[in-house]
Amino acid sequence: MQVLKDEVRNNILTAAKKLFYQKGYNNASIRDIAKNSGITVGNVYRYFENKESVLEGVVSPVYEKIMDYIALSESYIKAGENKSFEDFRNEINSYILQITKEFRLELLILFKGTQGTRFEKTRSELISLIENRIYEGLFKRLSMEDDEAAFFSKIVARSFLESLIMVIAETEDNRKLKKMIYRLNDFYFNHLNSRFDPED
Fold first, then answer.
1. Which architecture, in CATH terms, is 1-48?
2. DSSP 14
3. Which residues touch 48 (CB under 8 Å, ≥6 apart)?
4. Which of 20, 40, 47, 119 is the most exposed place for a label (fewest CB within 10 A)?
5. Chain centroid offset of residue 64 CA
6. C-alpha distances in angstroms, 74 versus 78, 88, 97, 157, 169?
7. Are 177 and 168 in contact (CB under 8 A)?
8. In Å, how far are 83, 167, 175 from 92, measured between CA atoms?
9. What does the pLDDT look like over 129-164, one tens digit per residue?
10. Is 191 helix (H, G, I), strand (E, B) or coil?
11. Could you give the C-alpha distances from 136 to 80, 174, 187, 188, in angstroms and in order?
């Protein structure tokens, strides 16, 4: 029966999601997944070719959303849409909140536990997008040399995403998460002009 097949597949993905989050992708085995989903190892292989295909089943929905957002954001740039950094910041806040509410564990697995898989570059692609927006929308407009502006953009993008992942990992309540994300943004990006006044 198709209903039974879908139920078994979903049980495998639910068990795998918990294991990948708790132990990391590399430390979780097909045997662990089978045991936690209450089926045999052979039955897992009836639904998934290997462990990476199980990972794909777990993280693909959130991965596709992030890739769609990156593509959309890059299309704005190519089309010459002159969104302010504040617009971008509000947009990415809203987007991160939306996908975190729906895919919190999947998002954390994608960012923290996909080394050695086809998903491992997702984090660096998102960092590159944030870095570019920080450079174009903030540091390039300050009284800084180009190479200095690019370097600070890279530092801030990486540390901002690391901090954001920490906030998502440690904040399960959605109302508190929203407040924490906006506070994090204020910490990194408010009053940058005054913090980077030209030297006398």
1. Orthogonal Bundle (1.10)
2. H
3. 12, 54, 57
4. 40
5. 11
6. 6, 12, 20, 16, 27
7. yes
8. 13, 15, 17
9. 889 888 887 887 777 888 998 999 999 999 999 999
10. coil
11. 12, 31, 19, 16
